[in-house]
């Protein structure tokens, strides 16, 4: 499998190019501002991009959607409530494939109502739900701290420890991690009651 991580744009965003292999079918995850390096890699690696996967609808995660669509004809995939153009609307538990690559969707509201994770081939693209050592903000319009509790302390902690975490921003000490490492080291994933978690977020 081909998996390229690009740190682009003014907000340390990570955009991912994933494909079966060079010349194979693939996807782009969260095309951010400054998408040109990703477009160049698509051309150089001859990737047939079938889908653009948006983990949520904030501008820094969708800014490059149209450029990738124009270059590749790929279809935009997003949660069904996401306020953006989507060719394929998904919800929790849905699955789809790009060639031999299989993807599964987990709905994880909290940072936004439309936040999702994409699980594929031993990896999980977490967008702004989970960073390395941190979680996404819950004080923005459309955020919900109580939903973030469910997403982190019920959904994320139940994932396989071996999954490689592909975050939406380069905010941590390393560009990737694993679910197991985050469960051990990420202070936002430590066991708390809902009330404790809500107080913790306000601290």
Polypeptide structure, described:
This protein is of the alpha/beta class and 203 residues long. The protein has a single domain (2-202), classed as Metallo-beta-lactamase, Chain A (4-Layer Sandwich), CATH 3.60.15.10. Helices cover 24% and strands 32% of the residues. The chain has helices at 36-45, 59-62, 65-72, 145-155, 179-185, 194-202, and strands at residues 2-8, 13-19, 25-29, 48-53, 75-79, 88-90, 95-98, 101-107, 116-120, 123-127, 130-131, 134-135, 164-167, 177-178. The strands form three sheets. A six-stranded mixed sheet has the order 1-2-3-4-5-6, covered by helices on one side. Helix 4 (145-155) packs across helix 6. The model has no long low-confidence stretch (mean pLDDT 98).
CATH class: Alpha Beta
Question: What structural class do you assign from the helix and strand content?
Answer: alpha/beta
Order of helices and strands: EEEHEHHEEEEEEEEHEEHH
What is the strand tally?
Answer: 14
Please tell me the total number of domains. 1
Fourth CATH level, the homologous superfamily: Ribonuclease Z/Hydroxyacylglutathione hydrolase-like
Distance between the termini: 42 Å
């Amino acid at each position: 499998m081909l998996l390229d991580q690009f740190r682009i744009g003014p907000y340390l965003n990570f955009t991912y190019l994933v494909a079966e292999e060079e010349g194979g079918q693939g996807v782009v995850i969260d095309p951010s501002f400054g998408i040109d390096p990703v477009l160049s890699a698509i051309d150089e690696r001859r990737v047939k991009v079938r889908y653009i996967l948006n983990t949520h609808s904030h501008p820094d995660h969708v800014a490059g959607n149209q450029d990738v669509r124009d270059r590749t004809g790929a279809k935009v995939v997003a949660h069904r409530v996401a306020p953006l153009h989507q060719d394929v609307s998904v919800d929790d538990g849905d699955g789809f494939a790009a060639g031999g690559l299989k993807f599964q969707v987990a709905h994880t509201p909290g940072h936004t109502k439309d936040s999702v994770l994409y699980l594929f081939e031993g990896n999980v693209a977490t967008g702004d739900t989970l960073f390395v050592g941190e979680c996404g903000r819950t004080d923005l319009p459309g955020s919900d701290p109580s939903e973030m509790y469910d997403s982190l302390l019920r959904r994320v902690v139940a994932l396989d420890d071996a999954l490689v975490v592909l975050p939406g921003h380069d905010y941590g000490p390393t560009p990737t991690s694993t679910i197991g490492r985050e469960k051990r080291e990420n202070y936002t994933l430590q066991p708390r009651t809902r009330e404790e978690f809500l107080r913790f977020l306000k601290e």
